[in-house]
Every structure is written in C-alpha cells, then in structure tokens.
Design a protein that fits this description.
Length: 371
C-alpha cells in the first residue's frame, strides 16, 4: 500500500507540475521569492509576491525577443476558487475548449473551469459575487458588482479546471469604489496594476538575457517556471526517496514474514504432509503445494495493498482538493507497480526455496507414529 501510494503521488505530482508550467517560458512579477512567484502565477497554489505596474509590463512585452505575452491579475475568489483576470490566449495556451455556453466577452462575464463548475453546480447565466482575497470569506464580498457565468470549459487536467476566468477590466473595476471622484478615477486609470506577466520567447537565449536584465536592473522579478519546478521537485524527491526506501524495507520484512509463515506451515502441518507422502505424493508435489499457498498469500497481499493504496490516493485527493483545489486521479496499475509484483513473486520463490529444506527431511514413519 505504501509503495503504490508513494509511486502514484510522485508520478502524478511530477506530471501535474510539468504540464502546468510547460505553456510559459517566464513569469514576471513583484520582487520576492521566485518559487513563490511561479507557485502563485502559474500553479495558483500560493499568494502573489505583489502587484506590478501595467505600463511597465506592457513595455517589457514589446521586447523583440518575446514571442507572446499574457497579462494576469488576481486577488479575489468565489467560494475558495480563484478568479483570474486575463485574455482568451491564456485559455488557449492550456488547450481548453468550451463545453457549454460561450467565452466571456464583456466585463463581469466569466467562464468556469471544469472542476469549479462541477463542485459549485452553477448554471449558465447564474450570477455570483466575488470576495476579496484568495481564501473563502463572505465579509469582504463585492456585492455591488456581481459576475455572470457565461460558459463552462471542458476538462483539461490543468490549473484551468480550477479557475474562474474573466477579463482584466473586470478585476480592475470590481475594486473601484462607487464614491470615487472622477479625478481620482482618471488617476487610477493611468496607474493600473496586474499581478504577473507570462511570457514565451522566440528562442531560449532571449529568456536568459531578459531574466538577467530584469532581475539586475529593475524593481521587478523574473522567474523561469521550468527551473523553479525542477528545483522544487529536487527537494520533494529527497522525501519521496526516503519514503520509497521505507516502502522497500517493508517489502523485505514482508518477504521475511512469508518465509517464517512457510516454516510455521510446514511444522504445523507435518502430519498432513506425511500422509500425503504415504498416498504417493512426491517431494516436488509437496513443494508445489507450499509454493501455491505462499503465492496465494502474496498475490492477495499485493491486490489488497494496491486497493488500499488507491483508497489512500482518493483520501489524499479529497484533502488536496479542499486545501489546494487540486485532485489526483485513480489510475490503473502501471509498469512500476508491475515491477513491485515481480519483486513480490521473486521474494515468494526465495522464501519457498529456503523453507522447503525441511520438506525433504520429513521422517514419515516417526511423524505418523507420534500422531
């Protein structure tokens, strides 16, 4: 159970992180931790490092080395799910398509990711009110500026499934106060902010050059998602290796327990085995009988371990879904698990070989006389 659980968590986590970070070469945001910037702007599982000037972001996006630039802004949620202000290009980068309704085309229109729509169970045309912050709360709700759900995206297996997506103007307008003066509004219009800028480059050299320039000569921060994710996986990998080591140690202990169980079986059932010999059973047939019993126990143990490992994945997925709005999949057995099965069978064969030594030393006449 532990081995299959760790293998699945490790595999799905690696796949999830790589799949979600792959669409973008660089993320630019406020100064702080580059890993936090990637986790917040790409994976949407952390708080942002701050906001950056829209004018400065647009200036950077005009760099000839940049192939594509996508602005994103967030800071509000609806029932714990993040509301992301961006463009249609963001949705296309993750290969998301409409399942129902239409994409948002006006202010305060929003499309729901597949998982959000499934969990919240809203219908097309339903209105909802955002709350300030990234954690569910009803205290700082923007009641005066409700959103309208216009569409539902098809499942993609990416972060898009966990987001509510609208346009940037809606994010800006929802934070304007109704009693602001016209002069202040004009001033604010000239100083709009976004949370992050997501970039793709024409070649890898451009990403390295711009990253060095921004981090050294500006008040902004540039982070490379692939580099930061690889660094995170390296840290996590140490933990997974440790748990895998524990799992393999448990497998070895299980192999030892099979051996002890077989020795105990031969001793407790020596009268039965002696009778079988008197009825013409050969040593090989007795060996086969013991082997089949041990194999049966091993296979039952493997199947139960696989089943409870998947149950553990389901429980862990529910926990992750409540905390981070992500879920894990219940998948069929993979090659690594088949390898574990081979190891289990191999250990069973070894245990039978060592335990069968006493089978060839059965004193049939003495055993039957003592019965």
């Amino acid at each position: 159970m532990l081995a299959t659980f760790v293998l699945q968590i490790s595999k799905q986590l690696n796949h999830h992180l790589e799949k979600n970070s792959k669409p973008f070469d660089m993320v630019i945001g406020a100064k702080g931790s580059p890993l936090q910037l990637v986790l917040s702007a790409i994976l949407h599982i952390d708080n942002p490092t701050g906001n950056i000037s829209l004018d400065e972001a647009l200036r950077i996006s005009k760099n000839p080395m940049i192939k594509e630039a996508i602005l994103v802004s967030y800071g509000d949620n609806y029932r714990g799910y993040r509301i992301l202000g961006t463009s249609d290009e963001y949705v296309r980068k993750y290969g998301a398509t409409l399942k129902e309704g239409k994409l948002n085309t006006k202010n305060f229109e929003a499309v729901f990711g597949a998982e959000v729509a499934k969990k919240l169970n809203l219908n097309i045309g339903s209105s909802f009110v955002s709350s300030h912050g990234l954690i569910q709360n009803e205290i700082e709700a923007h009641d005066e500026k409700p959103f309208v759900m216009t569409g539902i995206l098809a499942p993609t297996g990416t972060v898009v499934d966990q987001l509510i997506i609208t346009n940037l103007e809606s994010i800006w307008k929802v934070h304007e106060h109704e009693n602001e003066h016209i002069e202040y509004k004009k001033h604010k219009e000239e100083h709009k902010e976004i949370t992050a800028l997501l970039l793709n480059f024409r070649n890898p050299i451009g990403a390295l050059q711009l990253s060095r320039s921004i981090n050294k000569d500006s008040s902004l921060q540039a982070a490379l998602p692939k580099f930061e994710i690889d660094r995170l996986l390296k840290f996590l990998g140490i933990g997974f290796q440790a748990i895998n080591g524990i799992a393999m140690a448990i497998l070895l202990v299980a192999g030892l327990s099979i051996f002890i169980s077989l020795i105990k079986t031969v001793r407790e059932r020596k009268h039965e085995l002696a009778l079988l010999r008197t009825y013409g059973a050969t040593n090989f047939q007795l060996l086969k009988l013991v082997f089949l019993e041990a194999l049966f126990l091993s296979l039952i143990g493997f199947v139960l371990g696989w089943f409870w490992g998947r149950v553990s994945i389901l429980l862990f997925s529910n926990l992750a879904s409540d905390t981070y709005k992500y879920h894990l999949e219940i998948s069929s057995p993979n090659m690594q698990e088949f390898l574990i099965l081979i190891i289990v069978i191999f250990m069973t064969i070894l245990a039978v070989i060592f335990a069968s030594y006493s089978l060839f030393k059965l004193n049939i006449s003495k055993i039957l006389a003592d019965a």
